[in-house]
Design a protein that fits this description.
Layout (H helix, E strand, L loop, with lengths): L3 H11 L10 H12 L4 E5 L5 E5 L8 E6 L4 E4 L5 E5 L11 E4 L7 E8 L4 E6 L8 E4 L10 E4 L2 H17 L8 E6 L7 H8 L8 E9 L11 E5 L7 H14 L4 E4 L6 H7 L3 E9 L5 E2 L1 H5 L7 E2 L2 E4 H17 L6 H12 L5
Parallel strand pairs: 3-11, 3-12, 12-15, 13-14
Antiparallel strand pairs: 1-2, 2-11, 4-5, 4-9, 5-8, 6-7, 6-9, 7-8, 10-18, 13-15, 16-17
Helix pairs in contact: 1-3, 3-8, 5-8
This protein binds zinc ion.
Length: about 350
């Protein structure tokens, strides 16, 4: 069973892999090896390349999937001259003279962005070594000392979510009542939830599935890093399934887990795609610092572009472990009866006399 130390090793490994929308192969390989070491798990993929990891054996309930995406905003080199396409969204200010490095091979050269057009998301970088089409590059991050309970890595969004999902699955394997719990890992989220939309539109997700969409989401003044994993009631576009969200909240409160229940409207989330196309879905997330590697984001958004500095993303280590606990509680809670109407009925019966 995944101890805290083991789960943290997976977190460290996954969030440092080279990945980009449509170029998630390093993550896929890592996950294939992880599943390969566990005889009781099965890995399948749909025709869009989304992964489904399920437990073998008979299940008495409809599936519950913890969902995370495998991509992260990154540079994909398109020519040996250093031309690139940036996949995912980062403000143009961060590209000005930015130092980047090829991370998809060990001897990848470093370089500097010399031109970038935020509209087309195409640009040119000058590298101090050879590059070829298909190389993946990321920002050249300054090393930051670990400390104060924070974990920092290039791609917490959403590989920390993937690590939490796999850690939860590893623990669910020991619990016969959670055999219906599985993990879905999607592709190309950063370019518009594309893997999730593909799966939902084409029904590659088993009918009747309940989806717990995990994200790291921009820290908000009301949703701080370190204040616990977040039960996410909605994102910037919509609200998530009311009943699922409430059942999970009730169960997490009952268990006394430190958590937050918030509308995280700083960004979007795959639960939006699942819900829109008819699946029951809600969100869980971790508050994230330096979202999409944008250090000093608030200052940059306020107009001070000189502050644009690529930085490692960061989360709270305790929030991460709390999320694993919440996932397991949520997987069981979504099949509980919803007490809300009975609670309201009771209130009504005892207090209706106020209406005269
Ligand atoms: Zn993102």
């Amino acid at each position: 069973m995944a101890s805290r130390a083991t789960a943290e090793r997976w977190l460290g490994a996954l969030t440092n892999l080279p990945t980009a929308s449509g170029r998630e192969e390093a993550v896929v390989e890592w996950v294939e090896a992880w599943v390969g070491r566990r005889d009781d798990l099965r890995l399948t993929r749909d025709d869009g390349g989304n992964l489904f990891i399920t437990q073998k054996g008979r299940k008495s309930k409809d599936p519950v999937f913890a969902v995370a995406h495998m991509d992260h905003p990154a540079f994909v080199i398109t020519g040996s001259d250093g031309s690139f396409e940036f996949r995912g969204w980062v403000d143009g200010a961060y590209f000005k003279d930015a130092r980047i490095e090829v991370v998809s091979r060990l001897d990848g050269p470093g370089g500097r962005v010399v031109d970038y057009d935020p509209d087309s998301q195409l640009g040119l970088a000058r590298f101090d070594g050879e590059v070829s089409s298909g190389d993946i590059a990321m920002w050249d991050f300054r090393t930051v000392r670990p400390g104060n309970g924070r974990f920092r890595a290039p791609a917490c969004d959403d590989l920390a979510g993937a690590a939490a999902a796999l850690a939860a699955l590893d623990r669910a394997r020991r619990q016969p009542g959670l055999r219906h719990f599985g993990v879905m890992l999607t592709r190309a989220e950063e370019v518009g939830l594309i893997g999730a939309i593909h799966a939902a539109k084409n029904h590659t997700i088993p009918d009747g599935s309940r989806l717990l969409s995990i994200e790291t989401s921009r820290e908000l003044p009301t949703a701080r890093i370190g204040d616990g994993p977040i039960i996410r009631v909605g994102d910037r576009s919509t609200m998530f399934d009311r009943q699922m969200t409430n059942l999970i909240t009730n169960a997490v409160r009952r268990e006394g887990i430190v958590h937050q229940r918030k509308l995280m409207d700083g960004g979007g989330c795959e639960a939006t795609a699942f819900g829109t196309y008819g699946y029951l879905a809600t969100g869980l997330c971790l508050a994230l610092g330096n979202w999409h590697n944008r250090g000093n984001l608030a200052e940059v958004e306020a107009g001070d572009h000189s502050k644009a500095q690529p930085m490692l993303e960061e989360i709270s280590i305790d929030d991460f472990h709390g999320l694993v606990d919440v996932l397991l509680i949520a997987a069981a809670a979504v099949d509980e009866p919803d007490p809300l109407e009975a609670n309201l009925d009771r209130l009504y019966d005892s207090n209706r006399h106020y209406l005269g």
